Amino acid sequence: MPGKVKFDDLQIRLLAWYDRHARDLPWRVSPADRAVGKRPDPYRIWLSEIMLQQTTIPHGTPYFHTFTQRWPDVGALANSRDEEVMAAWAGLGYYARARNLLKCAREVVALGGFPETEAELVKLPGIGPYTAGAIAAIAFDQQAAAVDGNVDRVFARLLALKGEWQAEKKVIAAAVRALVPEERPGEFAEALMDIGATICTPTRPNCLLCPLSDLCAGHAEGVPERYPMKPAKGVVGGRQGCAYVLVDGDEVLLVRRPDKGLLGGMLALPSTDWPKTGIPDEAPPAEADWQAVGDVRHVFTHFALTLSVKRAALSGKRPDGVWTPIRDVEGLPTVFAKAFRLATTDA
Known about the structure:
The chain is an alpha+beta fold. The chain has two domains: 4-226, Orthogonal Bundle (Endonuclease III, domain 1), CATH 1.10.340.30; 237-344, Alpha-Beta Complex (Nucleoside Triphosphate Pyrophosphohydrolase). Helix content is 43%, strand content 13%. The chain contains 14 helices and six strands. Strands 1, 2, 3, 4, 5 and 6 form a six-stranded mixed beta sheet that branches. Helix 3 crosses helix 4, helix 10 crosses helix 11 and helix 10 (149-158) packs across helix 12. The N and C termini lie far apart (64 Å). The relative contact order is 0.11. Mean pLDDT is 90; it is low at 1-5.
């Protein structure tokens, strides 16, 4: 592990690099603007961190713009209808995060604003240790550590960590926390994120452009890309199910999924369960002349799902559900949006 002198030098180098190369992100305040007193908006920092937990910046940025145009502050979001937020979230994955987003917004409004410390922020729904550290440092200039996957990778290489990964993550967290400067802690956090995202990338680290390369034990070994040494990922399990597109004239049947569980509370197509083993044997939502139109596949975090899609025109009594004009269907979870498009394109 680098000594104290190198730790201090790392801070200086990293912040100097960040002053020149900081990414221009819509929720971020640039080093130049910070220098003249402009402060980040805690709402925008929080929203971006929650959105980016399961997606990339290019994918998440349009959602960020949509949310901040529609709900420009935490009060507006707190006063929105649940189903509107859930629909706007479609495509960002893990709808439990959208439900926690609303719970958090409402608690923040009840508190009179965002807490400023890690200890208080982590008590809010949907905010874990990393997110609490990021908000505290970036939005409130608290001397807090924000250790995400990018930072884990940078420090695994700097320190050439070869031990059991979960134990080494604790080493990294302690090292980063010891490094956070009293001045510019938020920019230090953002600089580490940017180094990991743009220089110290997963497969092809650009050591020639890295301001920390001569401090890096992984670089000294000549194989920085071997770090971090994580255990091999298990094979993603496959599940099967069936989705039903039941049409009555120009309307289609949608259902509200249970609040708890995957895609909880979302409008969706009627479907079977998706058991971990076997093929479900469940009745469709109505007796009709069901026609198979093909399969769609979607990969969730822990499993891949294949849905057989069936379509029919209603011939009897309407089953209960949310009958919606076909032209107005939007905001379905991705897997159901795929099934809906398959069944209605050129139908």
